[in-house]
Amino acid sequence: MKRFFILGASVLLAASAAVAAIDGKVINRTTGRPQPGISITLVKPGQQGMRTIGTATSDASGHFVFENDEPGGGPQLLQASYRGVNYNKLMTPNIPTSNVELDVYEATKSPAAAHLAQRMLLIEPGTSRIDVSETVLVDNQTNTTYNNPELGSLRFYLPPAANGQVRVNAQGPQGMPLPRPAEKTAESNIFKVDFPIKPGETEFEIAYVLPVGTPFTYHGRVVNIQGMPATPLRLIAPPGVMLSGKDIQQLGTEPKTQATIYNVMADNFTFDISGAGSLHAAGAGGAADSSDSPPVTQGQPQIYAHLGWLLALALSILAVGLLVLFRTSPLRVPYGK
Q1: Closest Cα partner for 153 from 87, 84, 228?
Q2: Distance CA 72, CA 90 (A)
Q3: Measured distance CA(176)–CA(205) in Å, rounded
Q4: Phi-psi bin for 116: left (phi > 0), alpha (psi -120 to 50), beta?
Q5: DSSP string, 310-331
């Protein structure tokens, strides 16, 4: 009986370990076949940062296994790198840990693999400053990842009045917003962002602060990556704010937010800003204070704040709400028109 008890306990322990393990395959979605030889890391976020639990390598059939994991106390993350691009798989509690599929893609440097599907510039004048937020959606409908560090995945114009201070967040498909550095280019006031555009939709959020004026004249420039199709730039003015100038055309009012939508009709454009208003909720963290923002730098990702990064995944950036409303608005012009 004693031996039977010990044997039964051993079986239960082995079964428990087997249940706790993570196993699956690395799938190359470009070729449709398993991908061998991929190094995979299992990490767990916490208050002290990302802690490595274990590493594994996919075999000839693309299969990998982690004998031990830590399913309790929050999510885990599978990380892999292929063709210079990082791929992640979020393992939240209470989801199956067997037969997990970790997707990777072949990479291309051709900008034609992606296109700028939406580009919106939100102007929010206040009493002491003007907050500017540019939201850009880049769509990749191919089965390859666009990755070109030389050209970048996005280029934008930063007005000289911003004094080189800007913050950029990038969010890949099914990902979370992550700070990215804005890199100077050979052209004055033109910056690029290096962030791989995976199949699906990638969102960029650019935020900076300008000084106030009565009225204030905004000087801008539409910048695109050569070879990457792009949609027109739209301007968004909250209630109480008016934009005027020969380079812009009023399209109408968004019904839910009552924001006024404008179309930009020139690559180099100017418009006057009058009034004051904001689409952000009072007290919510908006654009960064110009006195604190480091010039063209990268902040600390929220992923290092234990479970706060999951909250960020749900809440994302405040401008996403506006983006959803804009998409459902009759004022939205489809890509290519």
Answers
A1: 228
A2: 14
A3: 12
A4: beta
A5: HHHHHH--THHHHHHHHHHSTT
Q: CA-CA distance, 18 to 91, in Å (whole number)? A: 16
Q: Which residues, 6+ apart, have CB-to-CB distance to 316 below 8 Å?
A: 171, 176, 177
Which amino acid does the sequence have at 4?
A: F
Q: Report residue 220 as tokens.
A: 């801008």
Furthest-apart CA atoms within the chain: distance in Å? 92
DSSP state of 161: G
- Contact at 8 Å (CB) between 158 and 191? yes
Residue 182 backbone dihedrals phi, psi, to 5 degrees: -95, 120
DSSP designation for 73: S
Give the span between the Cα atoms of 193 and 149, in whole angstroms.
8
pLDDT digits (tens, 9 = 90+) for 166-180: 999 999 998 889 999
Q: Half-sphere exposure (CA, 13 Å, Cβ side) for 3? A: 0
Cα 157 off chain centre by = 19
pLDDT tens for residues 52-99?
999 999 999 999 999 988 877 789 999 999 999 999 999 988 889 999
Which is nearest to 64 in space by CA: 13, 102, 19, 18? 102
What's the angle, vertex CA 121, arms to CA 257 and CA 262, rounded to 5? 65
Q: Which helix (H) or strand (E) holds 273?
A: strand 268-275
Paired tokens of 114: 């992606």
Q: Which two tokens stand for residue 66?
A: 């982690």
Q: Which two tokens stand for residue 2?
A: 């004693």
Sheet strands (E) in 61-199: 63-66, 76-82, 85-91, 100-104, 107-108, 115-125, 130-140, 145-146, 154-157, 167-171, 178-180, 183-184, 190-193
pLDDT on residue 309: 44
CA dist., res. 150 & res. 20, Å (int)? 43
In angstroms, what CA-CA distances link 48 with 271, 282, 309? 47, 32, 13
Cα–Cα distances (Å) from 154 to 4, 134, 162, 183, 199, in that order, read 65, 12, 19, 10, 16
